[in-house]
Every structure is written in C-alpha cells, then in structure tokens.
Design brief:
Elements lengths: L1 E8 L3 H17 L6 E8 L6 E8 L2 H13 L2 H6 L7 E5 L8
Antiparallel strand pairs: 1-3, 1-4, 2-3
Amino acid sequence: MITYLTLFTASDQSNAASLEPIFSVLRKNTPSEPGCISYEIYGDSTNPLVSCIIETWESQKSFEGHLEVVATNQYVEQALAFTAEPFKSIQLIEKFNLIK
C-alpha cells in the first residue's frame, strides 16, 4: 500500500476556482480505477489558494496506472495553467501505527 500527497497552489482566487472542475472529475473517476483504496481532495483552512490530494493505492503499479490515466486525459497540463508553481507530490510513509 502506498500513499501520496500532492499540493497545488493556485496563482489567484479565479484560478483556484478554475481548478475545481478538474478536481471534481478526478474525485468522481479515480476511486473506480484499479487499485485505488482512497482518493480525497482537501483545501487549506488558512489559504484558499492551496489544495491537496491524498491518495492511497494498493501498489506502485496501480499508482502508475493512475498516472497513465492522468496523462492521457491531460489533467496535469490543465491544472498547471492555473497554478502559481508546479505542484509537488510526495510519497508518505507511516512513522507510527497507533492501531493495535
């Protein structure tokens, strides 16, 4: 199981609103992709220009399949038109498992 966090910073409020339809399509379609465990989109409570995607996949292979879908549909290119800087993705690792 792998989890990624991707941060987006819109260049202004209008562009933040322009990202919403892209996020909406991703939120609707991604959970049905093979290997998707969860796919959630959040906004920053203190900065309305910042959004993030937290997604968990069964394997690196399933995540890479998702990246192919994203590339085919040009979601990255569409989103970059509205961001102040390239978005950043990081793979998260679990430091502490509090569930016993």
